User: Fold this.
Amino acid sequence: MSNLLDAFHLTALPPEAEAFRAQVKDFLKENLPDATADIRARSWLGFDAAFSRRLAQRGWVGLTLPASYGGAGMDAFRRFVLVEELLAAGAPVAAHWVADRQSGPLILKYGTDAQKDFYLSRICAGTAFFCIGMSEPNAGSDLASVRTRVTRCEGGWRLNGRKIWTTNAHHCHYMIALVRSSGVPEDRQKGLSQFIVDLSLPGVNVRPIVDLTGDAHFSEVTFDDVFLADGTLIGNEGGGWEQVTAELAFERSGPERIYSSIVLIDCWAEHLRRHGASDADTVLLGSFATQLATLRSLSVAVTARLARGESPIVEAALVKDIGTEFEQAIPALLEAAIAADPGQEVDAELYRTVAYLSQISPTFSLRGGTREVLRGMIARGLGLR
Assistant:
């Protein structure tokens, strides 16, 4: 048990990272589109390609990627600061989010020189947006049971199958897909590979899925005999499971796993400043602040391990699990707080914001791995199974 618990060391952000924060704040003052809280609450689901390109012009998309590919060559701490400020402000970052967070680092680590030269420069320029091809219909959270398959053909591969709950696929240029390149689903982790799929290819069909909020962030993507040329395989054939596990550490470790409801807290705090706070409101706000401070410290500790070039898979799963539980609790608790005084004046903007997050918050514990899957990983990390 101590091995996992010892991995979390209280870590302060280095001075250069905190100095970088001022630059980010200045950029947001000049470039953040005006929007109400219920729109800003969408943040890393909010798609605005123009905003992402302005961010890229500052060198802040692909922030940790080498300068030789157009990145800023900065460390994981400064990326933490950038992400923290973007989410706190409710910036619409969905366009570049996946490419910056995980697709770019994955290609940098496992890709060929040709893949790095082609894709990383476009990611850093904000002209190549990526989505994640992991989940499949009828597979639930059992990622190892994927049935989407590639088969060898002259000059490349043929791809057939389906992916689902693919965030922003209908806006993206490319998908990094986990597929079966050999064997059968019963082989589990064996025989899985990752491919870069150009979503404009013949045979690719992207169908947006409207969610409870009325938004269409998710998509179902079908592949009907799609030809993938040689050079689209990332890493080694059959090495997909190891690669996707490393990729998920990037997906699960960032501030987005604790800040998805932060705009709502700010909106409610502003409501309390204008209309006054009861003792119960003050206690609840203090509870949010203490939980957020603790989760942030855990997230920074994971970032420190990423900065050292490590892959904190289990630690990231732990932060994601408890972080999303906190994120989901916020709208439920604030609904109760508002309902406790039915005679109080409540701004329509606050109502819309809490309503949106109440509807979308069930997805927080699904995206990036369900709570049950993560707790299984944590139990193994603690030596309990």
